[in-house]
Every structure is written in structure tokens, then in C-alpha cells.
What we know:
- The chain is an alpha/beta fold.
- Helices cover 37% and strands 22% of the residues.
- The chain has 13 helices and 14 strands.
Amino acid sequence: xxxxxxxxxxxxxxxxxxxxxxxxxxxxxxxxxxxxxxxxxxxxxxxxxxxxxxxxxxxxxxxxxxxxxxxxxxxxxxxxxxxxxxxxxxxxxxxxxxxxxxxxxxxxxxxxxxxxxxxxxxxxxxxxxxxxxxxxxxxxxxxxxxxxxxxxxxxxxxxxxxxxxxxxxxxxxxxxxxxxxxxxxxxxxxxxxxxxxxxxxxxxxxxxxxxxxxxxxxxxxxxxxxxxxxxxxxxxxxxxxxxxxxxxxxxxxxxxxxxxxxxxxxxxxxxxxxxxxxxxxxxxxxxxxxxxxxxxxxxxxxxxxxxxxxxxxxxxxxxxxxxxxxxxxxxxxxxxxxxxxxxxxxxxxxxxxxxxxxxxxxxxxxxx
Length: 368
């Protein structure tokens, strides 16, 4: 089997309501998403998606994905999409780094492999655990009362895991954590996510000012060095998110005891193949996981759920469905959807999602 055509699509995904990250320092209204369709000489068609969360959240942006694909896609024509590890290695030799630009290609190849083998991606990744994955909400920064109202809206859809954004005013952050922790239900978990906004002194002050069990903090500071400093002077569990970019970051997190949980975002780490290595290490090292995308439609979310459902339930803390926050729906009635706060991967060959071309429009680039 050989790749004989790669088509690239661009679509804007407006958020249903504006979103404030990290104490309100970053605002997002629309996501720039790139879709990749890989066609083979025997008629199979695989789909992938790459969608950074805006242009100021990570060193990643929508048009950057298309620039990366402009370099690597022409050289992938004639490659065997079933040899995914070789294909990823070849992309890394063509262009070191820029993992977020390659992840959609990796995703599309897994889709092709699943269709070719008549297996779902979750089974190709090691097998489905028959327990649905809990969905984590994403609660924009606001006053404590405003944030609680958002949590209540998510509760109405069955959510019991929440990611509440903090990270601006220290006294208000302490009030947010205390207030929301008092108001959460017994079966709920809240991650207080600073998205790197605090310096160590601020993180230590906030974390040591709040008491009680089951309070988790996500990416309190910019670097792993700073998060390690916080880890040494606090007791609440820490999750590393933006600090996990490559496998060596995970080695350091484990070896130095920086965190108990990691958030593996598929687009950021380079796709399903590289995330799989991280998953297997976490299982050996006893590190719990959140599995998410950086953004996107139901296509990106479904790939994430396939991956998340291949993880033993005691290790998986939740996933996230970005497509519930954006429009349009590019694959109505397909893919992984919220069922009372939980989600399962489709039991179909490959990813089980094919975007509606009439919504995507004409490709912005075609390589053959």
C-alpha cells in the first residue's frame, strides 16, 4: 500500500462563548483547525486533524501546521501508511521538532491502519477497556460564583471532573479554590489549572493556603524546574500539562518526582504513536494520566478517546471534548460523544469518523 494523495483543509471553529485562560490573561474566540486526508493506491482514505488552542497558548499556531505539512507531505507520497513508526521517523528526519505539525498525519495513518485491518484504533493501541472515560469540563476564569455556575451547567450534562482556570490574582485564586472546593459534590474532582501563570512563590502561597483532600493543581509554573520547586514545598497532587512535550520530559517528571499526574495532549506530543510510548511508561512508573487534544472538532476528540480508552481505568483521570465548545459540527452523528459525562470510542474500523467535505470546503493544498 502506498500514499498517492494528501489533501489539506483549513476551517475556523468559533467558540460558542469567549473563553478566558489562566486568570483571564488569555482570551480565545475561534480556533484555526487543519484537516488532513491521506488517500492510498488501493482506495483507503484516512483522516487526521491538528488544532492548537489559539495562537498564544503554546508555541503552536494553525498556519504553522500547514507550513509543516507543506514541507513533509510532498515527501510522504509513495510511503506505506501502515508502517507508522517508520513514517514518523522519516518526518522527524525531514523536519526535527514541530511535533504539533505532524500529529494529524500520524492520526490519519492510524485511521488507515484500522480500516485496512478492520479494527478500531483503540484495539490497535492494545485493546479497549469496557469502562467509559470520564469527560473533564473546562471552566473559564471568572469570579468564584461565575465559575460555580459554569460547573453547575456541566453537572447538568453529567460531568463530574472539572478543570477550573486560575492564575491571576493570588487572593482571588485562594478564594476560588476554597469556594469551589466547598461547593463541589462528593463524587467530583476539580483540577485547579494555572496554565503556567504562577511563579513558584505564588504557587506555593496559594497551594499552602488551601486545606482538604482531593484538591489537584495543574501546571502551576512555566518550567519543570519551577514545578519541582513547588513540589518540594507543597503537598497537594500536581499534574504536568504544558511541561510535557517530549518523552525525555516524562523521564524527568518521573525520575525527579515532579508530579503524580500528567496531561498527554496528542497534538502537542506529536500524535498517537508518540503518546503511546508515554502511556506505556506511565503504566510502568505508576503515573496517572489525563488524555486530551489541544483543540479541534469531533475528529480530534474521537482520536483522543480511542487512546484514552486503551488505558486501564485506575490510571485514567479523564479526557476532554473540545467539540462541545465549538462549531460547526463537521461530522454530525459520528464519533465520540458525551453520554451523561462519560465517553466511549466508536466500535468501527479506524477512527470511525469521516468529516463532511461540504463543511470543510475546498482543500487549501493538495500533494500527489
